[in-house]
Write a structure and sequence with these properties.
The complex is a heterotrimer of chains A (194), B (172) and C (424).
Chain A lengths: L27 H13 L3 H12 L3 E2 L5 H10 L22 E5 L4 H13 L5 E5 H6 L20 E3 L6 H17 L4 H5 L4
Parallel strand pairs in A: 1-2, 2-3, 3-4
Helix pairs in contact in A: 2-6, 3-6
Chain B lengths: L1 E3 L2 E5 L5 H10 L5 E9 L39 E8 L9 E8 L5 E2 L8 H12 L3 E2 L36
Chain C lengths: L28 H6 L3 E5 L11 E7 L2 E8 L7 H7 L2 H4 L1 H4 L6 H16 L5 H30 L3 H21 L8 E2 L2 E2 L7 H23 L3 H7 L7 H6 L5 H4 L7 H4 L20 H26 L26 H12 L7 E9 L2 E9 L7 E5 L1 H7 L1 H4 L3 E2 H10 L4 H5 L1
Helix pairs in contact in C: 5-6, 6-7, 6-13, 6-17, 7-8, 8-13
Classes of the chains: A alpha/beta (194), B alpha/beta (172), C alpha+beta (424).
């Protein structure tokens, strides 16, 4: 813990809103991130560790429905994620770092999802891909879990129905940036059980 | 028997379904069972029909379209209908598709047609699971889409859609 | 390598449908008592199941002696959800069921609505719908090929197939705005006019596609491992296939010549020239060859549709019935009636006359049927979808008689099931 001045996300060269408004100041995301950064006190070794974590973050195969097809599209040669070192989708959660929940999660599937998440080893991240994983999507009914953040802590939500492969890549890149900036995985921020 | 929209529907009594099914399969060549659909008609004709619509109770200010003649849909004989969609494969000059329909009340069992068309197995399980149609004589009548210990039959009209109210950001 | 003679001998004698439960392969009692069985759960999350399928398998060594499928892990209550929405708002729902062959799903629902409404669609819409459905068929078979080959170990096929698939999705994006689940089909025709530039791009695709299919076949058709892992496995005779309600490539791979596009033509399939591939062997290899040939035939159909569509510039793309079809946006500024109609159609919904219909279409997986009951109101009363994958999974137990566990992967892959439509 040093006495450095509070560093903002922008000081790392990251932008929270990568959109059109020039001159927009740091938003709520950066405020929260700033508090975290102060609490974390990053060192060079940690930075190196985080860098290497992002460079080969292997996803776990958890394709459920339509988003899974777009997730498979991200692997193909046009939207290659092999350039991020992530084309090795592991079948075993013990070997995976990233859980991309792609598709609608029925209540019946929630238990296996939680089991897979528990079987992953720390550090682990979760991307809720698509509208159904983030919030239940267009299915507000008795059968679909209204957002996978009810049962696993989620780092990034990617909107879309289904999100384009480029949108998923944007989510993945933002996750990489978060990790490199030193933001801890979601289970440390929000608690494992929710 | 009735025809509508170019489709033929044959309505039989529930007890004679297997006999009718066997007749259709063996004598008329409907070897292919495409689908078994169950429908729940609870609340049929409660409000609103085509064209200028009305309700039996007259105009209702909450339903703006009830400003016209009262016309209700044809009443249905019982609460549930189970339709067997059959197909006769091969080049035919006559009707190639037919719908065999039975009507049941709540709890009334429908004999299983698994012996006639083995594909009926899962279709009947689904009708039981989602609509609560009791199928008698089925070798493996368990829930198929819902959990084994789920209570209630989701696709019935008196089963709520569930889900939850949508929260908006910025409100607490 | 020896090619099996294509004679009309039966695939196997009698019937292999297990009794008394047709969908469960039961372990013979003698074997159960020997105590050598291993019960394995191929859980909902498994690298080789297409989506969330759970198979409870009993193994005697490497041989599968008992099989039961548990589904429902993706149950989304589509049918109940659609009852809550108006007809217009319910149209995006069916696409998400069979998420690979999404155009066929939309088509079935929209055709059912039009049948109840007795609405005539303009011919431009008919031909464009046909074109998009065939493109979708190619796209679905490409994903099937990619995943089936991936599971058997022919991993490079994935990248080759997805290259073409991305081209098709670009075409879909050109017309519909999104790659998948375009809600481009509406009751009455198409949502919007065909954008300029589409025909050129589509023509490039149809010119290139046959050589792409040649590439896939060169990769795998004479590869000894592929042949040994697919020939003679997953046998399903024609009678069993019909009794089990199979349709689509599974039925055609078992020797039954039945294709809804040829025998019960909808849209304009009776005006295009195409062949229906049928193979008598009834094994995994036959289904693979059927699907490859179907890709070629679909490209032919797409080319013919393009020929016809290029002559239809400037024609209407949706029916004229203002009670059902949204008016063009320019009119909303000037015409009061258009504004009112737009308002009523969007908020209350158009009313579909009372009745029940069943509309089958040929989806890439087989006969996709949509049974719609309308009470004359703005919302569907009951919508039921006949999903071909639901029925195809029932055939797993029959296909699996005397198979090894590695074959199980190949067989389940060849049935081409999409769990979204199985669980609905």
């Amino acid at each position: 813990m040093g006495v450095e001045p509070k560093k903002r996300l922008a000081d790392y060269g990251l932008q929270s809103e990568r959109v059109m408004w020039v001159g927009k100041g740091p938003g709520k995301f950066e405020d929260e991130l700033g508090d975290l950064e102060r609490a974390l006190g990053l060192t060079t070794l940690e930075k190196a560790v985080h860098w290497s974590q992002t460079k080969s973050m292997w996803p776990d195969q958890f394709g459920l429905s339509c988003c899974a097809i777009e997730m498979m599209s991200v692997v193909n040669s046009r939207y290659d994620i092999a350039r991020f070192g992530m084309e090795a989708f592991r079948a075993s959660p013990r070997q995976a770092d990233l859980l991309i929940v792609s598709g609608r999660v029925a209540h019946r599937m929630a238990a296996p999802l939680r089991q897979i998440y528990d079987q992953m080893l720390e550090p682990k991240w979760v991307i809720a891909m698509g509208a159904c994983a983030s919030s239940g999507g267009m299915f507000n009914n008795y059968s679909i879990l209204q957002g996978v953040d009810r049962i696993v802590p989620v780092d990034i939500d990617v909107p879309g129905c289904p999100p384009r492969p480029e949108a998923l890549m944007e989510g993945i890149i933002r996750l990489h940036e978060k990790v490199q900036a030193g933001v801890p995985p979601a289970y440390e921020l929000r608690g494992v059980a929710s | 028997m009735r025809e509508a929209h170019g489709e033929t529907t044959v309505v039989v009594e529930t007890a004679r379904v297997v006999e009718a099914a066997t007749h259709l399969r063996d004598e008329r060549g409907f070897v292919f069972l495409a689908d078994i659909s169950a429908a729940d008609y609870l609340g049929w004709g409660g409000h609103g029909v085509a064209g200028y619509i009305g309700t039996a109770a007259g105009r209702d200010l909450n339903f703006p379209a009830t400003q016209g003649l009262a016309a209700l849909p044809e009443p249905k004989p019982k609460r549930f209908s189970v339709s067997y969609h059959l197909l006769a494969l091969g080049e035919r000059s006559g009707a190639a598709r037919v719908r065999l329909q039975v009507w049941v009340e709540e709890g009334e069992p429908v004999p299983s047609v698994v012996t006639v068309w083995p594909t009926a197995d899962w279709h009947e399980r689904e009708a039981y699971d989602l609509m609560g149609i009791a199928i008698s004589g089925h070798p493996n009548l368990k829930r198929i889409l819902m959990d084994e210990d789920w209570e209630g039959h989701p696709l019935r009209k008196d089963y709520p859609i569930g889900g939850e109210p949508v929260r908006f950001s910025g409100e607490e | 390598m020896a090619v099996a003679p294509e004679t009309a001998r039966p695939v196997y004698e009698g019937t292999r449908i297990p009794t008394p439960i047709p969908t469960v392969l039961q372990v013979p009692e003698a074997l159960r008592e020997s105590g050598e069985l291993l019960e394995v759960n191929f859980g909902p999350n498994h690298p080789s199941t297409h989506g969330v399928l759970r198979l409870i398998v009993e193994l005697n060594g490497e041989e599968v002696v008992g099989l039961a499928a548990a589904i429902g892990y993706l149950h989304t209550a589509f049918e109940k959800n659609m009852e809550q929405k108006t007809w217009w708002k319910a149209i995006p729902y069916p696409s998400r069921m069979d998420y690979l062959g999404y155009q066929a799903n939309e088509l079935a629902f929209v055709l059912a609505i039009e049948k109840l409404l007795a609405l005539e669609t303009p011919r431009k819409a008919v031909w464009m719908r046909m074109l998009l459905c065939e493109l979708n068929r190619i796209q679905s078979h490409l994903v099937w090929l990619a995943t089936a080959a991936l599971e058997l170990g022919a991993i490079s096929m994935f990248w080759y197939s997805f290259r073409e698939r991305d081209t098709i999705l670009d075409l879909a994006e050109l017309v519909g705005g999104v790659r998948m689940h375009t809600r481009y089909f509406q009751a009455g025709g198409l949502a919007e006019d065909i954008p300029s530039g589409f025909f050129v791009e589509c023509r490039k695709f149809t010119d290139w596609m046959p050589s792409a299919v040649d590439q896939y076949e060169r990769l795998v058709n004479r590869q000894q491992i592929w042949l040994e892992r697919t020939k003679g496995l997953g046998l399903l005779s024609a009678d069993d296939a019909i009794a089990l309600g199979q349709s689509g490539p599974v039925l055609r791979g078992s020797g039954v010549d039945w294709d809804l596009r040829r025998h019960e033509p909808y849209l304009a399939y009776d005006e295009v020239d195409f062949d229906v591939p049928v193979r008598p062997e009834g094994d995994v290899y036959a289904r693979y060859r059927v699907r490859m040939q179907e890709m070629r035939e679909s490209t032919r159909i797409v080319a013919q549709c393009l020929d016809r569509l290029e002559g239809m510039e400037g024609e209407p793309w949706i029916a004229d019935d203002r009670k059902v079809v949204l008016p063009p946006r320019e009119e909303l500024h000037t015409s009061m009636e258009s504004l009112i109609h737009h308002f009523k159609i969007v908020t209350e919904g158009y009313r579909v006359p009372e009745g029940e219909v069943y509309v089958p279409v040929e989806s890439p997986r087989g006969e996709f049927g949509c049974y719609v009951v309308s009470d004359g109101g703005p919302k569907p009363w009951r919508v039921k979808f006949r999903a071909p994958s639901f029925v195809a999974l029932q055939a797993t137990a029959t296909c699996m008689s005397s198979a090894y566990i590695a074959d199980m992967i190949a067989i389940v892959g060849s049935l081409d099931t999409v769990m979204g439509e199985v669980d609905r």
